[in-house]
Design goal:
This protein has helices spanning 5-17, 19-23, 50-56, 93-96, 99-117, 179-190, 209-216, 223-236, 240-243; strands at residues 27-33, 37-42, 45-47, 64-68, 80-86, 121-132, 137-146, 151-161, 164-173, 193-194. The chain is an alpha+beta fold. The radius of gyration is 19 Å and the shape is globular.
Length: 244
């Protein structure tokens, strides 16, 4: 049976007056990246123009960015999500499965960046770091406490690909209730579709720690160093303007 006129009118009223209620968890917008993946976004999320990305972060070349209901005011409100792609440094699963080491090294790296950039952050912590083996995604949540006692949460995901990784970080101010976006962020990440040539395929050598140590002996940066650099760059460079 078709919809009655009353139901149609009610639906459009809901969309007009309460769009976040109707579409907040529905990934209805499809964006195809030229690097070989597709991401689905919720209603109201818009792509950040390349010029705005460069002006916001001239030192880190983000490939893409998306913001919820920007109203033409990019980076003036949250949440927004930034994407950085590495197509040269493949990461082994043995590295991302070593959660304790990953978090410890990540903390050291972030502390150094906070100190060197003299950011007004009095404390930070990393929570919910885990590896989703089924989907080949490393997740972590970073919370930065500023000197004014306000906090910014960074929901981070690293998707392993056959030739590198795709890093996504979603920033949410304390006033915007970060917990509201936790499930939505995971849903967006888990629904990313990779082209066949990008799909991560485990290798026998990935299970051996000595292979990781061997890689570190070369002059080329190891995948773990590349991963850590990505994580704290996403977390801190992306928030630089907020911390000024």
């Amino acid at each position: 049976m078709g919809w009655s006129m009353n139901k149609i009118v009610l639906f459009f009223l809901m969309v007009t007056l309460f769009p976040s209620t109707v579409f907040s968890d529905s990934l209805i917008n499809r964006f195809s990246a030229e690097e070989g993946f597709v991401i689905h976004l919720p209603f109201g999320w818009e792509q950040i123009p390349g010029k705005a990305l460069k002006e916001y972060s001239p030192d880190v070349s983000y490939h893409y960015g998306f913001q919820e209901r920007p109203g033409g005011q990019w980076f003036q409100n949250t949440p927004y999500m930034l994407i950085l792609i590495n197509d040269e440094e493949r990461i082994s699963e043995s590295e991302v499965k070593d959660i304790d080491t990953m978090v410890a090294e990540e903390k050291k790296a972030i502390q150094k960046v906070i100190y060197s950039m003299n950011l007004p952050i009095k404390d930070f912590y990393i929570d919910d770091a885990h590896y989703d083996e089924e989907n080949k995604i490393f997740y972590s949540t970073m919370v930065f406490i500023q000197t004014d006692a306000q906090s910014v949460t960074a929901l981070s995901a690293l998707i392993l690909t056959e030739n590198g990784h795709i890093g996504l970080t979603c920033y949410i101010d304390e006033k915007d209730s970060p917990s509201r976006y936790y499930d939505l962020f995971h849903k967006m990440v888990e629904n990313i579709q990779l082209d066949d040539e990008l799909v991560f395929v485990p290798r026998f050598s990935d299970n051996f720690k000595f292979m990781d140590r061997f890689k570190k002996m070369s002059f080329k940066p190891s995948p773990k160093i590349a991963l850590l650099a990505l994580v704290f760059c996403l977390s801190l460079w992306g928030l630089r303007e907020k911390f000024k």
